Every structure is written in structure tokens, then in C-alpha cells.
Amino acid sequence: MEIKNFIGGRWADKQKLQTMPVMNPANGEQLGTVPLSTKVEVDEAVQQAKNAQKEWALTPAPKRADYLYEIAFKLKEKKEHLAQTLTREMGKVIEEARGEVQEGIDMALYMAAEGRRLFGETVPSELANKFAMSVRAPIGVVGLITPWNFPIAIATWKAFPALVAGNTFIWKPSNETPFMAYEMAKIFEEVGLPKGVANIVFGTGPTIGTAMVEHPDIRVISFTGSTSTGSKVAELGGRHLKKISLEMGGKNAVIVMEDADIELAVEGILWSAFGTAGQRCTACSRVIVHKDVKEVLQQKLLAATTTLTIGDGLDPATKVGPVINRAALEKINHYVQLGRQEGATLLTGGRILSEAPFDKGFYFEPTIFTDVHAEMIIAQEEIFGPVISIIEVADLDEAIEVNNSVKFGLSSSIFSQDVNTIFKAQARLDTGIVYVNAGTTGAEIHLPFGGTKGTGNGHRDSGQAALDVYTEWKSIYVDYSGKLQRAQIDT
Length: 491
Description:
This protein is α/β, with parallel strands linked by helices. The chain folds into two domains: 6-248 and 456-476, Aldehyde Dehydrogenase, Chain A, domain 1, CATH 3.40.605; 252-436, 3-Layer(aba) Sandwich (Aldehyde Dehydrogenase, Chain A, domain 2), CATH 3.40.309.10. The chain is built from 14 helices and 23 strands. The strands form seven sheets. Strands 14-17-18-13-12-20-21 form a seven-stranded mixed sheet, with helices on both faces. Strands 9-8-7-10-11 form a five-stranded parallel sheet, with helices on both faces. Strand 5 and strand 6 (130-138) form a beta hairpin. Helix 3 (79-90) crosses helix 4 (94-114) and helix 4 runs parallel beside helix 5. The radius of gyration is 24 Å and the shape is globular.
């Protein structure tokens, strides 16, 4: 299948553009091709979005929200088709793919409801016969840059609040997973979203991403990806005085205290570490465990890990699918070798699976290191694969210190049955998300998503906080006194 750009409500001709293949990471099958667009296509998309935004902003917010309701219904209607498409191009197991599509449905419904809210404030004026209020106003044309690991969920976190707030957008999906963007474009077309409101341009980050960040008519850039790339986006966007929203890496930890439910902790760690083959920004990469329960946790975790079924995500029995491509395999393997060199003990896994039936895909064994020290590279840097490090600590204070010692601050988790321990931990863990008696994954769409330090720059996806990225505050004063009144001036 040949994918085309979706610009101004039309499928753009790509005959003059170079293309690249889109591969199924489970078996190496070529699924189709994606165009490698240029700055010309970005300029065209921005012009279409700019023209459409004027009328879209004047459309009442409840009417804008009606389109999101229709999008939600379409997503629900096509859920299984979308989930299977997602698994083929990204590799995650089918139950996770269905969950990701459901997240898009949930976000559409949540943001549609905001069409009748979009709360501002009314406040008393200090002057008589004067009314004061603030409202949210759309910003204009926004740019969305999304990653391959959640090709529909993250896009909906960004696109739907932008739309309901009255903005139009240019979306650059990942070239690794363009089919979900293609399917979303078809849905935009089917629900009759006005032409130019949603535009999708495929291409590379250095070409399309840079053109978007530098374009004077794109007022906001919302980016999810690596911290190194996000830093470049922030630097370039800062030169152009753009609002930049960044959601980047993580080095997330599960803390297991001496009074934890160990069986529950093992379940939480398995799901957080090896779900999506560890390719989540919220994936558990470290297990920080109290010395009194380290051995029992380690034994149970090892036993459970070795039972995980690895394979094509379309097989319902599969629990761990492939990683996205050959480069990801090599990166994960590089970190595993570093862990060995640093003196960590490899409990299980640690190798690329190259024998049949794995030889045509990109599979890495679920891997556990123990005897890991907090300062080791494998305990500090984001691996983005199915690798966890077990770090022993003496008490809660040390556990929190180890958790906070990395440059990221996305998600953390603590397993304990002591309410005092739990409340002390949630107050001191330096992450944007904290889970209690659950793993590090599983964020819900109606709360803010994002983190501290190297994970983000203060903005949030999801929840009402997402609206702050796509709106400007406008303060309005109505003086009905019939005379000039001067605030703060002594009379």
C-alpha cells in the first residue's frame, strides 16, 4: 500500500517524492511505502491549516466537539481493524493494541466534553459597575510530532485538545508507523472534518520536523520522543519564540518495600517492564527493592519472566512482541554488554533471538540484571527495551534517593502496605506520575501526563492540563459605569 499526505482535506499526489518501505517488525514483511516529504509540502499544509483556522476558531466549541464525538464512534466501529493494523506496523501484542485504540476513543470522548466547558474564570472587579473575566482562546496553527511506540494514543492526546480549542494542526507521524496516521486521516475525512483543519505530512525529522519548528505560522510545537531530539526542538523553537511542549524519556523505577505484596509486585513489574517489549517512556527499567525481600522477589520475578511467550503480537498467546527495528535491537544489546562489563549479574535473557521462528523479525529476550548499583550506566540511561536492573536498598530513604538519582522524572511506583510509607514516598518521589501498588504504566487520559527534569519542560499531555498547551488566556474587562474608571489610581 502506498500512503499519501493528507493536506487540505485531499490525498496529495506523491509521484515526485521519494519513499521508504514500512516493515512489519515481527516478520520483516513489507507493508507498504511512505513518502519522504519536503519543506514544500509543509508550507502547503500550513497554508491550508492557516486558511481553515479562521473559520474553525469561530465555530462554537460545542460544534467543534461534535466532530470529536463522531471520531470516537468511528474509532470504536473500527477498533479491531485498527488494533491489527497497529500490531502489524509497530509489533506490540494485540491486547495492548486494542488498549491503545481504546485510549484514542476515550480521549475523543473526554475532549469532546470539554467543548461545553473550556472553563475560564469570572472574578470581581475592584471598581464599581465593572465586570472581569478570562477565557481560553485558540492559538492558531499547531504542529504535532509523534513517535512510533504509541502511534495513535499519543497523537490523540495532542490532536483532540488542539481541535476542540479551535486550532488547526499539522501532524508529522513516525515513518516507522505511518498506517495509523493514514487510518486517522480516513476517519477525519469520513466524519466531514472541514478541509484544512487536520493535515498529515510524512517525512523525516530533520526535514519535516525542522521545517515545522522553523515555520513562522506554526505557533505551537508538541513533541514526544527522545530527550536528545527534544532538546534540539526546544533550542530551535526558542529562537523562533514558539510555545514548545516536550514529552521525552524516562528511567522509571518500581520500589518494593519489605512489607509489599510480593506476588502483586511481580505482576506489576512484569507488565511494566516487558509490556510493549519495554518500548514505553513509562516502562519499568529499575526495580529498587528492600534488602529483606530482595531474594524472594528476585526468585519469583525470574520464574515468571522465563514463562513469557515471545512472538508475533497477532498471536493472542504472545506476551512479548518484537522491538521496532534492527537499530533498536543493536542499541538494547549494546546496553546489555555494558551491564556485563560494569559487573552486574545477568539472571536471564541478554541476547538477540536470531534462530527460527524469530530470524525474520527483531526480538530481544526479556532480560534481568541483579547486583546493579545506582550509578551504573544501565541504571542511569534509558534503554527502551525489555531490560530491568535490580538494585538493593536498606530503607525507604535510600529507595527514594536512588529513584531520584537519574536525569529523568516521568513515572515511579511503590509497593507497600504501610500508609505512612506510601504518603512519604508520593510526596518525595520526583516524578510527574506516581503509582501505589501498581506498576509504572497505565496512565488514564483524564489526568495530566508528563514528567520532571529530562522528561519534559513543564507542559502536560492529556487531562485538562493539555488545553493549556493549545490555548492562550485572554482577560476581558467590561466597564458599564458610563465613565472612565482608572484601576489602581488613588481618587
